[in-house]
Design brief:
With 239 residues, this protein is α/β, with parallel strands linked by helices. It has one domain: Rossmann fold. 27% of the residues lie in helices and 27% in strands. The strands form two sheets. The chain has a nine-stranded mixed beta sheet, with helices on both faces. A two-stranded antiparallel ribbon has the order 5-8.
């Protein structure tokens, strides 16, 4: 399978999604949107992954490439499902954090500041509707997740809400069976969080919903847990 991911800043790469792709023997390629790198044609990829980033989806003046990125995401979602590479069905599209917000935006949803920033380890609860999705039906109702966001998305028209948390009502949705948006991070490794602390540590003020670095980095086994959940989700979506 040809997996292509969109990266927005140097310090937020595909992390454990890349680990999964390589372990499963998939092709993996990347466009650095912030560097103006070219995008593939939608029919040249089987899976689009849209990563996180510190910008808002509507900051077009500061990040003019967001317009081009949104147009590309929409084209991939709308691509004719007839296979061109031997891989069956419509392309998979997965968005994480900013990526999920971009998917919501192109589908007609809104992205706005959440009622509080959510940074650290907070559980996510799946909805009753999640049990009807072939990927998420196998998961327990409450799962661990790492978060680093100040904005949040609404559920766009035609999409189904999959999850929420105490600090953020909308943590995930699906559009059809093969487009999934996550607000939370299962993609992060311990090194990912260390890098986020180094680059975005100014956000770590004393406020509800924001943990201290020592809390975030404690109990490394939690990173193993979310990697397992990530791999199960990606394996399910790849079927």
């Amino acid at each position: 399978m040809r997996i292509h991911y969109l990266q927005h800043v140097a310090f937020e790469d595909a992390a454990n999604i890349a680990v999964w792709a390589r372990q499963r023997g998939h092709e993996l390629s990347c466009t650095r949107m912030d560097l103006g790198q070219p995008l593939p044609e939608p029919d040249e990829i089987d899976w689009l992954v849209v990563m996180g980033g510190p910008m808002n989806v509507d900051e077009h003046d500061a990040y003019p490439w967001l317009v081009r990125e949104k147009e590309f995401i929409r084209r991939v979602i709308d691509r004719d499902p007839r296979p061109t590479s031997g891989y069956p069905g419509a392309p998979r599209v997965l968005g994480v954090c900013l990526g999920g917000q971009l998917i919501s935006s192109v589908l007609g949803g809104r992205v706005a500041p959440n009622r509080q920033k959510e940074i650290g380890w907070f559980p996510v609860s799946f909805t009753v509707e999640a049990a009807g999705h072939p990927v998420f039906a196998r998961f327990p109702r409450e799962v661990p997740a790492f978060h680093w966001h100040g904005d949040t998305f609404t559920i766009p028209p035609g999409a189904v809400r999959l999850a929420g948390s105490d600090g953020c009502d909308n943590q995930a949705f699906h559009y059809g069976q093969r487009v999934i948006a996550l607000q939370f991070h299962w993609d992060y490794s311990l090194a990912s969080v260390q890098t986020m602390i180094a680059h975005c540590g100014g956000e770590l003020v004393d406020a509800p919903g924001i943990q201290k670095p020592s809390e975030m980095l404690a109990r490394p086994e939690r990173f193993d847990a979310i990697r397992t959940l990530l791999f199960e989700m990606l394996d399910g979506l790849a079927v």
